[in-house]
Amino acid sequence: MCSKMEDRSKLSISERIEQKTKGSGSSSFMEKLMPAVFLLCAIISILTTLGIVFTLLFETVTFFRGVPFADFFASTEWYPFFSEPQYGIWPLVNGTLLVAGIAMMVAIPFGLGAAIYLSEYASEKVRKTVKPILEVLAGIPTIVYGFFALTFVTPILRSIIPGLDVFNALSPGIIIGVMIIPMIASLSEDAMSSVPNSIREGAFALGATRMEVTVKVVLPAALSGVIASFVLGISRAIGETMIVSVAGGASPGMGIDPTGAVQTMTAYIVQVVKGDAGFGTPIYYSIYAVGMTLFVFTLAMNLLAHYISRRFREDY
After folding, report:
1. Can you give the pLDDT at residue 19?
2. Which of 11, 25, 28, 151 qualifies as a FRET site for 114, CA 20 to 30 Å off?
3. Average pLDDT over residues 110-116
4. What is the pLDDT of residue 5?
């Protein structure tokens, strides 16, 4: 009887070893397969990026074969559809920076305020409720934001500012700022939450109030992440397309008056690709030159955010 039980126990042990061997074999196969899959994904991402950059470069060079490089960067006249076209990029850059500046005037105070509340004042229950609701703003399609700016925000602003045009820089700038609030709030809150509680407790032990701890201790410690969120927000505002296309208008100019119509670099690209220019014409190739300029702006913003993040990073 005992020998039969020992045989069964030995059998069960051998079966278990066999099952573990099979399981470890499949696990070992997956361990070898997944690095190759991840490497393939990384290679595809890099090749896609290089393809986009080379396409922009090739078509931009084609544009500058017909338009002098000096005229593109030295002129302040942008009239590509006239009989004697002018391709000075600065009116588009001016409109882009004007809208982005208005957006950041809205996004930075509200986004940073939301981050401070969520990190330093809100309870855990409130944080888990408010933060997902705030991030819902990031999931709304930008075309919806555009029509919201045109049909809701602009009439309200026109009742307050009588001289405001139907298409203007103020309305899309405000709405882009609202759209960027979740990005700044989330990234800043993450940076502030990463500050160790021991630093806060030390400041409280010295008699500091909660506001003093937030402004004089937590914010300086999380400065790299907070500033990086601002720079990324600017990059997002510069690259916004649909909101400015719907509510901003199509009047490039060098003024800084937010009550008039403007045209950004992205809005001009949308205007041309809708069919206002034939393939192979200088106007068609101009969208690649504008796109390259936009790419340089956003790349500079991302590199600046990366530099700031590394330069002012605090290690704990």
Report:
1. 55
2. 151
3. 91
4. 46
